[in-house]
Write a structure and sequence with these properties.
This protein is α/β, with parallel strands linked by helices and 337 residues long. It is built from twelve helices and 13 strands.
C-alpha cells in the first residue's frame, strides 16, 4: 500500500463497516444498475448492535450526476447497516429546496439529521428548527465555520481553506506560475474558500473562472475559450472530480500545455493520475464523511458521545499523485474512494 502524502496533520477516524443499506429516498446519480447493486448488497447486511432502530436522514446539496455524493452515500449506508439505522437520503442543489427537505425530516420526527451547509444562510432556519425539536444534527462536507453556531454536534469533512492552501503549496513544488481555479457552483462558500486557500500559499497568479456546472458542454467550452486566449495558464484546478475529465478535453481542444489538477477522487481521476493526464488530486475521503456522520449520531443517541471537542473532525486533505493511483484503483472502482 502506498503511503499517501498529507500536507498537514489531520484528524480522521475509520471504523469497520458492513455491506450497504438501501434507502427510502435515493440519489439519482448512481443510475439504476448501481442502485440495484446497493439493494442486493444491503439485503445481506446484518446489524452489529441490538439498539433501537433509529431513523437518520441525510440531506445534501448534491445535484444530479455528481459521483462524489454516491461515495458519501455509500459510506453512510454501510454505517447504517452496522448500527441498525433506518437511513433516509435526499438531495437538492437548490438551497431553498434543500432547506425544505430538512423541514420534512423534522416533521417526520427522525432521530438524527446529517446536512451539508454549502449555502449556510439559506439553511440556518431549517437547522435551527431541527435543533429546537431536539433532533441531533451533524454537518458534513461544507459549513465547518457555521456548524457550531447553528447548533450542530460537530462537523465532519475537510477544512476548505486548508485544502486550498495544500493545493497552492503543491503547485509551488511543481513550478507553476499561473493557476486557473474553476468554480462550478456559484454561491457555494466552500468553493470560494478553496480558491482563497490556493491564493494564500501559491507564489504565482490565481485566476477564477465561473462556469455552469450543471452543463458539461458549457464547462468545456468556457475552459476552451479561456485556455485559447490565455496561453500563460499553466495549471487548471477543478473543484470536483467529474470536472477534471472535462478540463482534460478542453485542454486538448485548446492545444494548451496547462497541467490539470483537481479536488476529489473517483475512478476516472485515479486513471487520469496513472496515465499522466492529471497532475494531482486532493482527496477529502467522502466515504468517511458519510460513514462517520451516521456512526457519530448512533454513538450520540446510544452513549451521548461527541467527537471533535468543538472543532471539526477533518477527513482531509490528502494530496494524491500517480504514485498512489494503483493502490487506490480497487477502492475507486467499488465506490468507496
Amino acid at each position: 500500500m502506498a503511503r499517501f502524502r498529507t500536507w498537514r496533520t489531520w484528524t480522521g477516524i475509520a471504523l469497520a463497516g458492513a455491506l450497504s443499506l438501501s434507502l427510502a429516498g435515493c440519489s439519482s446519480t448512481g443510475g439504476k444498475r448501481a442502485e440495484d447493486a446497493r439493494k442486493a448488497a444491503a439485503a445481506q447486511g446484518k446489524a452489529a448492535v441490538n439498539t433501537p432502530r433509529w431513523t437518520i436522514a441525510m440531506i445534501t446539496h448534491s445535484g444530479d450526476g455528481d459521483t462524489f455524493w454516491d461515495i458519501v452515500q455509500s459510506g453512510a449506508e454501510q454505517a447504517a447497516v452496522k448500527d441498525n439505522i433506518n437511513f433516509l437520503y435526499s438531495h437538492d442543489d437548490e438551497a431553498q429546496q434543500q432547506a425544505q427537505l430538512v423541514d420534512a425530516a423534522v416533521d417526520k420526527k427522525v432521530d438524527g439529521i446529517i446536512v451539508t451547509l454549502a449555502k449556510p444562510d439559506a439553511m440556518k432556519a431549517a437547522v435551527a428548527r431541527a435543533v429546537k425539536a431536539g433532533i441531533p444534527v451533524v454537518t458534513v462536507n461544507s459549513g465547518s465555520a457555521e456548524s457550531k453556531e447553528f447548533g450542530a454536534l460537530t462537523h465532519i469533512g475537510q477544512d476548505e481553506s486548508i485544502a486550498g492552501e495544500a493545493v497552492g503549496e503543491e503547485l509551488n513544488e511543481r513550478g507553476r506560475k499561473n493557476a486557473l481555479c474553476v468554480l462550478h457552483e456559484q454561491g457555494n462558500v466552500g468553493h470560494e474558500q478553496r480558491c482563497d486557500g490556493v491564493e494564500e500559499t501559491f507564489d504565482g497568479k490565481v485566476q477564477r473562472l465561473y462556469v455552469t456546472g450543471t452543463s458539461m458542454p458549457d464547462v468545456q467550452s468556457a475552459l476552451e475559450a479561456k485556455l485559447q486566449t490565455d496561453k500563460s495558464v499553466d495549471a487548471v484546478v477543478t473543484l470536483g472530480a467529474p470536472y477534471a475529465d472535462t478540463a482534460v478535453k478542453a485542454k486538448e481542444s485548446a492545444n494548451s500545455k496547462a497541467e490539470i489538477d483537481t479536488f476529489d477522487l473517483n475512478a476516472k481521476v485515479a486513471a487520469g493520475l496513472k496515465d499522466g493526464s492529471l497532475g494531482f488530486a486532493v482527496d477529502q475521503q467522502p466515504y468517511l464523511q458519510g460513514y462517520e456522520a451516521v456512526d457519530l449520531l448512533w454513538l450520540y443517541r446510544y452513549n451521548a458521545d461527541v467527537l471533535g471537542g468543538g472543532q471539526p473532525v477533518l477527513t482531509g486533505p490528502q494530496i494524491i499523485t500517480a504514485d498512489d493511483a494503483d493502490a487506490l484503483a480497487d477502492y475507486t472502482k467499488r465506490g468507496t474512494r
